[in-house]
Amino acid sequence: MNEMNLVAGKYCLEKQIGTGAHGEVYQAVQLKDKNRVAVKIFYRHLHQDILQYILKELKVISSLSHPHILKVQAFGRGRFRDEMVHYLVTPLMENSNVSELLKKGKLEMPQAIKIATQIAQALDYMHENKFIHRDVKPSNILLDREKDAVLADFGIACDVDRTQTMAAGTIEYCAPEQMENSPGKKPNPQWDIYGLGITLYEMLTAINPYRIVANQQGQAAAIQKKYEGRYPSVTEYDGLIPYSLSLVIQKMISPQARYASMKEVLSELRLYDIGNEPSSVNFTKTEEIKLPENVNLLFQKAAFFSKQKLWKKALLKYNEILAKEPACYQAYSNKGDIYLQKKMYQDALANFNLALQYRPESYNALCQRGYTYLSMEDFVPALKDMEKAISLHPQRPQALFYRALLHKKLCEIYLKQNHKDLYCQENEQMKKYLDLYQKVKLSNRREDNV
User: Fold this and answer.
1) What is the phi-psi region of residue 375: left when phi exceeds 0, alpha when psi lies from -120 to 50, beta otherwise?
2) What is the pLDDT of residues 235-271, one digit of tens each?
3) Which class for 359: exposed (0-12), middle (13-18), buried (19 or more C-beta within 10 A)?
4) Long-range pairs for 12-19 at CB < 8 Å and ≥24 separation?
5) What are phi and psi of 341, to 5 degrees?
6) Is residue 357 domain-shared with residue 442, that is, in the same domain?
7) Which residues pair with 75 in a beta bridge?
8) CA 307, 309, 313, 315: dihedral to nearest 10 degrees?
9) What single-letter DSSP state applies at residue 324?
10) Strands 83-91 and 131-132, bridge-based pairing
11) How far is it, in rounded angstroms, from Cα 144 to Cα 103?
12) CATH code of the domain covering residue 417
């Protein structure tokens, strides 16, 4: 063991994995239990006042406990390479950070929303405990082994009641009012909302709007744009991003009309954290059917092929089933699911119609036919199927989920048409059914655990 790599006699540094404004971060082994950890060595040249501020805030933040906040395992002062240094120990995150991900290009919308939602939960928890992060940005969002997001780097975090003596933050991500040196100004949770908004913008487009303006027109123009809130909509970079989501991001980074709290942001983001494809929704259990053993074996083979996305082979097996059992509604319903995933909507409808002909109260077939109509933007029959499914089984979540999606789609349409009253009505309905879906899903999970 190289003693030059020992910190406080407790941690053996293996390699440098990062650097920041206040120090360098290393992958290390904790000698006591041989676990790998991350060790931050604070720069020796840091002004004593800054160092004492950081250590004081770390002492308080170490008492916070949240699954999406990087845990402070230890901090203190010890010997490193014949000098005394201050250090911080945290768990080692094995999947780098969002900034590294963005070097490969923009993130898929579900992943971006998942990360933003998890960080919003962490920030909401911090705000409830009277702390502001002040430096929310991609490089401060780490990813653990399961690729869940963890908020890190609390070097400039502060108490909401502490008067700000100087501007702090990273200019590309900090709110315009956060940059001002105003005597007596107190930190505001809305600063973190702005930083998360710019981070979400960047995750969806791989573009930092401030940086683009600064590179093309200079820093002065970039700062002016920041104060005006005049950045291109994310939909200009990717037309597949829902228009309503672009409005959420615009409100997060608005200089004047920003969300008042992180709870408001969470209530908006969760509407986009529910997926958009029926293949991602696996709420319903297969409806009980009694069939001959040889037919059940064909179902098992068809299910295997479907799981492997070998659609043609799966369809052949369902056709074999129907040759033996012409009135097997489940085979028609499953064929409809395949055509729906392939976006062959007319074929999907034909099979769901046959399934419902043989079993008019099939919950699965009603849900999936309703979703097919929704995908075709045929809202009246979509709503009719979803209402019937909900009336049949109010304690099953799938129809509630699809009903929320239907109102979400109508919200987007009315926003584009500038029908504010209709948008508000659909928005209320969307929130209503999303709340019902989440309550039912939670209730079902509790029952499964009993």
Assistant:
1) alpha
2) 888 877 877 788 889 999 998 889 999 999 998 887 7
3) buried
4) 13/39
5) -65, -30
6) yes
7) 88
8) 80
9) H
10) unpaired
11) 18
12) 1.25.40.10
**21 and 140, same domain (yes or no):** no
- Judged on CB neighbours under 10 Å (0-12, 13-18, 19+), 303 is middle
Output the pLDDT for position 158. 75
Which structural domain range is residue 194 located in? 98-272
- 175 located within any domain: yes
| Strand intervals (E) in 5-57 | 6-7, 11-19, 23-30, 36-42
| Helix, strand or coil, per DSSP, at residue 23 | strand
Whether 295 maps to a domain, the answer reads no
What pTM value is reported for the model?
Answer: 0.63
Structure tokens at 315: 């369809």
Whether 261 and 409 share a structural domain: no
Tokens of 215: 């590179």
What residues contact residue 345 under an 8 Å CB cut-off, 6+ apart? Answer: 339, 372, 375, 376
The residue out of 91, 108, 142 marking a domain boundary is 91
**Where does 82-207 show beta strands of DSSP type E?**
83-91, 131-132, 141-143, 149-151, 158-159
Same domain, 344 and 227: no
Asked if 332 and 354 count as a contact pair (C-beta separation under 8 A), the reply is yes
* Interval 382-432: pLDDT, tens: 999 999 999 999 999 999 999 999 999 999 898 888 888 888 889 899 999
